[in-house]
Amino acid sequence: MNEKQTKSISKFMSLVLRHQPETIGITLDENGWTDVEELLTRMSQHKHPITLAQLQEVVETNDKKRFAFSEDGTKIRASQGHSVDVSLGLDPVTPPEYLYHGTVARFLDSIKKEGLQKMSRQHLHLSKDRETAVNVGSRRGAPYILTIRTGQMHRDGFLFYLSDNGVWLTDHVPPAYIEI
């Protein structure tokens, strides 16, 4: 597969494994998993034909590691970013003292007033380093990187989770913990 095909399949998989599984008639279990063979069949029926080898290539080469196979390889799920109700089975963990969030200037006034919100997603995503936050923020324009005082948040009782692909998750970041 070429890079364009891989990216197209990855985007479509993000849609069905994170937001709209009903688009191709699959279901996600309570932990976000779906059967690999069913996914392959349904994708082919919906103009996104893909083989198991190609699916494995998409999962292995995705720079953000958005997808994961179950240990036995029979199931697949998105690593995080769901807007559908699933439990990734993650236990709360202690975050580093600082994490980062990439955004753009047009959202800064709202962030100063309300903090960072998870919006339609199950969790708010935070990055372990500035470089990753720049990449995230760049998707919407010139990035503006926020430093989040996650160590203090954790000491104040906020919960954090670390997804399988290294994205930090939480429910909300109040303005008092954000360095703009």
From TrEMBL:
Give the function comment from the record: Removes the 2'-phosphate from RNA via an intermediate in which the phosphate is ADP-ribosylated by NAD followed by a presumed transesterification to release the RNA and generate ADP-ribose 1''-2''-cyclic phosphate (APPR>P). May function as an ADP-ribosylase.
Looking up InterPro entries in the UniProt record yields: Ptrans_KptA/Tpt1, RNA_2'-PTrans_C, RNA_2'-PTrans_KptA, RNA_2'-PTrans_N
Q: Which domain of life is it from?
A: Bacteria
For this protein, what is any one GO molecular function term?
tRNA 2'-phosphotransferase activity
Q: What is the name of the gene encoding this protein?
A: kptA
Instruction: Give the classification, highest ranks.
Output: Bacteria, Pseudomonadati, Bacteroidota, Chitinophagia, Chitinophagales
Listed EC numbers: 2.7.1.-
Q: What is this protein called?
A: Probable RNA 2'-phosphotransferase
UniProt keyword annotations, A-Z:
NAD, Transferase
Q: Which family does it belong to?
A: Belongs to the KptA/TPT1 family.
Q: Which residues form a coiled coil?
A: none
Its BP terms in the Gene Ontology are: tRNA splicing, via endonucleolytic cleavage and ligation
